[in-house]
Amino acid sequence: MKTNVIETGTMNTTGTIEVIEKTTPFQGYFRIDRYRFRHSLFNGGLSGEITREVFERGHAAAVLPFDPKTGEIILIEQFRAGALAASMPPWLLEVIAGIIEENETPENMSHREAQEEAGCDLGRLKKIGTFLMTPGGSSETITLFCGETLRQEQRSSYGLEEEGEDIRTHMIKAEDAFQLMREGAITNAITAIALQWLELNQKQLVKEWQ
Question: Least enclosed by CB within 10 Å: which of 40, 44, 144, 207?
Answer without folding.
Answer: 44
